[in-house]
């Protein structure tokens, strides 16, 4: 098993991509901490892991936009497992849409605080122990919107562009310390976030939910949206020794929507 004796911490781990990564890591032998603002969801995932795999799992409540909450999450993980995480997956995030001129200060601030600041706070908290042990993996779940602009998602796109900048800078700082830092950039994924996006499309257009889904599928040359499990498979590669030569990269999982 590729993650035997490793401890992974996954934010936004209660559903969608985060849940899929947690299950994949546990399948490969890792002990897992899943964290989110919704404690009941991550506790459910932790039970699911322990029921399926011979490993330990812990669900913790955390608001990644609050540095004190992040520090508490790491403290609780260390207390429960007796060690700091070897692997950090920064998956917690939000995606809301609005025309730029109708983007409120609060909407803008929420995206930067959760998507970008949260990634920074968690990365900063995880790195000291990784540096001490000369081994670590940090995987940031970004978006293809972090590489290009999209209309009506300026706040989201800006926050994810920031995540890629943070990823690249951190990767260079720790490259000689046995640590890699990478980003995964999904396109549309079959998650609740995409479902909410479809609901928003139907409210603002005359499209039905099925028609809205088809319009999203057509953005990919493969004419489909990807699954959380596909994102998890890449996360596993980046977390394992097999991926040790990949560092500072932003890898798309989008069926070829964006070719850079």
SSE inventory with pairings:
Elements: E1 7-11, H1 16-27, E2 31-36, H2 39-52, E3 57-61, H3 67-81, E4 87-90, H4 105-133, E5 136-141, H5 154-174, E6 179-186, H6 192-204, H7 209-217, H8 228-239, E7 250-253
Parallel strand pairs: 1-2, 1-4, 2-3, 4-5, 5-6, 6-7
Helix pairs in contact: 1-2, 1-8, 3-4, 4-5
Keywords:
48% helix; 260 residues; alpha/beta; 7-stranded parallel β-sheet; single chain
Q: What is the straight-line distance between the termini?
A: 32 Å
Question: By helix and strand content, what is the structural category?
Answer: alpha/beta
Low-confidence stretches: none
Question: What is the count of DSSP helices, taking H or I runs of 4+ residues?
Answer: 8
The average pLDDT value, as a whole number, equals 95
Summarize the amount of helix as a percent range: 40-55%
Radius of gyration: 18 Å
Order of helices and strands: EHEHEHEHEHEHHHE
Beta fraction of the residues? 5-15%
Describe the strand arrangement of the main beta sheet, using strand numbers: 3-2-1-4-5-6-7
The best one-word shape is globular
Number of strands: 7
Report the major sheet. 7 strands, parallel
In words, what does this structure look like?
The mean pLDDT is 95. Helix 1 packs across helix 8 and helix 4 runs parallel beside helix 5. Strand 4, helix 4 and strand 5 form a beta-alpha-beta unit. Helix content is 48%, strand content 15%. The protein starts with 6 loop residues before the first strand and ends in a 7-residue tail after the last strand. It has a seven-stranded parallel β-sheet, sandwiched between helices. The longest helix is centred in the middle third of the chain and has 29 residues. With 260 residues, the protein is of the alpha/beta class. The chain is globular.
């Amino acid at each position: 098993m590729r993650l035997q004796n490793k401890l992974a911490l996954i934010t936004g781990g209660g559903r969608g991509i985060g849940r899929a990564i947690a299950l994949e890591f546990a399948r490969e032998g890792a002990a897992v901490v899943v964290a989110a603002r919704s404690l009941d969801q991550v506790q459910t995932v932790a039970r699911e892991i322990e029921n399926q795999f011979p490993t330990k799992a812990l669900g913790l409540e955390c608001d990644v936009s609050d540095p004190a909450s992040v520090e508490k999450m790491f403290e609780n993980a260390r207390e429960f497992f007796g060690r700091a995480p070897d692997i950090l997956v920064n998956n917690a995030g939000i995606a809301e849409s609005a025309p730029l001129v109708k983007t409120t200060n609060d909407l803008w601030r929420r995206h930067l605080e959760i998507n970008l600041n949260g990634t920074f706070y968690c990365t900063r908290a995880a790195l000291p122990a990784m540096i001490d042990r000369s081994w670590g993996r940090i995987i940031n779940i970004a978006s293809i919107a972090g590489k290009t602009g999209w209309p009506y998602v300026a706040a989201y796109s800006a926050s994810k562009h920031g995540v890629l900048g943070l990823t690249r800078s951190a990767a260079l700082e720790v490259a000689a310390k046995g640590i890699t830092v990478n980003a995964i950039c999904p396109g549309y994924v079959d998650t609740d976030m995409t479902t909410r996006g479809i609901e928003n499309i139907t409210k603002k257009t005359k499209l039905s939910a099925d028609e809205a889904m088809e319009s999203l599928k057509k953005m990919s040359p493969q004419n489909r949206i990807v699954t959380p499990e596909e994102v998890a498979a890449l996360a596993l590669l980046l977390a394992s020794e097999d991926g040790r030569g990949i560092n500072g990269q932003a890898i798309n999982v989008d069926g070829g929507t964006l070719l850079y």
